[in-house]
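To whoever picks this up:

The parser on our side crashed when reading a file containing two proteins. I've narrowed it down to the boundary between the first structure block and the second sequence. Both blocks are reproduced below exactly, byte for byte. First block:
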Amino acid sequence: METLPVALSHRRVLKIALPIVLSNATVPILGAVDTGVVGQMGAAAPIGAVGIGAIILASFYWVFSFLRMGTTGLVSQARGARDDGEVAALLTRALMIGLTSGVILIMLQMPLLWAAFQISPATQEVESLARGYIAIRIWSAPFAIALFGITGWLIAQERTRGVLVLQLWMNGLNILLDLWFVIGLGWGVQGVALATVLAETSGAALGFWLCRDILRTPEWRAWHCVFDRVRLIHMAKVNTDILIRSVLLLVIIVSFTFLSAGFDDLTLAANQILMQFVEITAYALDGFAFAAEAIVGHALGARSRSAFRRGALLASLWGGIAAVFMTLVFAAFGGWGIDVMTTAVDVRAEARSYLPWMAVTPLMAFGAYMLDGIFIGATRTRDMRNMMFVTVAVYSVAVLTLIPIFGNHGLWAAMLISYVARCASLLWKYPALEASVETT
């Protein structure tokens, strides 16, 4: 039986969060490289195609992000309760769900892509390039989705250095292959897709290796535990709530890209470049949100309300510090970052005109990310689902009101409003969550 982690402290929060921040930093860097290598072609259409193709696949995959979040919350609580058998069984369940879901996604790719492009108003050139991109990338779906479960399990174990190793390998390889396939061999958009397939496949293999200790024991294949009816029902409820919440969040994210495409290719390309910075914000704040998930979940499993409160506060404090730092960096160096990612003069100018909206995104968003982490760790997923309905409603009103008046500026304002609505609605639910933690 494992011993309980050390007492809550700034050091423990940072020990969990910083490897995640570093590992997550490679993901938007990868997105920036994807955009940058096709940006060297000197045209807006390839940039928009990679953006549209990536957001469609990310949307498909993000539907399964419940696997990462649900696994982290459930495993961290099992650790707090010192239930080692359930910790192992949860890994097996996550892998089974991930691999099976990826196969189903491959089988359903044609109708899913048809539906996606019916929604997207992109030009014929952008759509053609994006279809070629997706047709290649879809084949790594089982590995990409299984990685959600592996990552969630490692985070709950507070083994975030392993997550760092996994991301550095996978995204580093992807970047090198991007440069080789696109710049070296001239394979264009298809080269970007193939690089990602190879990286995700090798990343899944490394993920299995990182879990090798538990996979060498009989506990992971104790089928009476893996298929325990009560625990399966509980896991299904948690994952279903997160699934609905994720789909609702995707409504906001996907609509941002599709509404961008509805203006023109130039605006789409500019927004796609700025969204790389938004992803940097998301992945950095996720590091501290993940720390909150692991610590809060463990405290809940151990039935310690004081640890629950202190973990939530410490993680949020460091998340706020990170948000201020990122806003200052984007304000100072955002223009330089735009120039790095594209050589097209008109795209550079267009992106600069919307940079101020992006620069304040970390400050507007960090509260939502931290509360997400707290509620995920507590597996209070029903509240997350319900408050996301509220958030989508607020966002929709903002879109319908602001875009006709302010155009793309109105679209950026609506996205920031959605962050505020998400934070405020979950903050309203937090006191009841904390009060519900049983103490021993």
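<<boundary where parser fails>>
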Amino acid sequence: MDVFSFEQLIAPIIIEDFFQCYWEKNFVHNRHDNPAYFDGVLTIADIDEFLSQQNLIPEGIKLTNRGEIVPSEKWTRSDTLLNGTIRMVTDPQKLFDLFNKGNTIIINSAERSIPRLAFACRNIEQELKFKVQANIYITPPGSQGFALHYDPHDIFLMQIKGPKTWLIYDSGEELPVSYHALREDPKLISKFDIHSGDFLYIPRGTPHEAYSSNSSTIHVNFSLKPVYGFHLIEKLAHMAADNAKFFRQTIPHGFQSDEDKKTYLNRFKEKLNELIDSIKPEELLKKQKDKFAKDQLLNFQGRLINSLQLENLTSETIVSRLNGFTTIHENVQNVWVIQFGEQKIEIPVFVEKDIFMQDQPFRIGQIKGLVTDQGKLEIVRRLIEAGFLKIDQLK
């Protein structure tokens, strides 16, 4: 599977120019004149296969018409399992009937269900160190899924099937992180058609709307969930609660005098400045990076194949590190700890760890340190079970 990068997504704009000139500032429409430009990420066949399942769980699927949600009971049915359990599943016939009557189908968090799209999302996440959610919008001819609105998150849009008409307005909210009603009537600043293979970036807070004309349309929104400045302040507050007695004290209550309150506020400002001065900003950034490493989605493709071969490991087996995820590795009480996602692996410090961190394949017998051949096999087995290493060649 080819690696899809953030650079390919925003091409022909280079990454440095994008973040300097457009990120959180201006919308971008890149026309590629190539309807198949995003076929490596998602095709109509991928979506069709997903929606045609006979026992598809309805969570994550919505139907809308100009923002009005179609009740799920209109496109689901009950399904009885062999053990008698009754559950609701998507009814493909009802779903497509409603689509043909002008309703937009939305697949939220599609990166959890469609493998190639998931692979692209993980690649972009690893580049930006932001969580990425992919929502798919399938709109029938002459329809509009949502009326004029803005989103409290930046949108990176891939047009899978077009054309679709987009309208961009001004007078939005400045870098919102939640949705509020528009404070004034927005003014149209741009109207254009977006075609199959095109890319569109819309900064959060920018009012917009879109509609299909004579043909149905499909697009994917990559919604980024970055860390904002106030998140660092939240982290600072947790650190204050853990390390500073003053901030664990109760604030002035109703029986205290105005002078007491004034004294407290002056003291609060003094202690807050001391706290800020005592913490290095890079420490806060590192904590956020560590949080991303622990919360990231991992790629489990190939894990079963590797697990089924564990019993055949020998000192001559060639293995290599799996790519596509961020790790935390540190020395904790004479043990090397490698953590990614929910996995935490411990390697004794008397084993040379650099061979595990390199990108090149290696033979298990090449592991250095005060460890027996059997010990090397046990360490590699644990790393394969955790999804850190993969088997390249059994010998």
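After patching the parser it read the second block fine. The radius of gyration is 26 Å. The domain at 6-225 is CATH 2.60.120.650 (Jelly Rolls).
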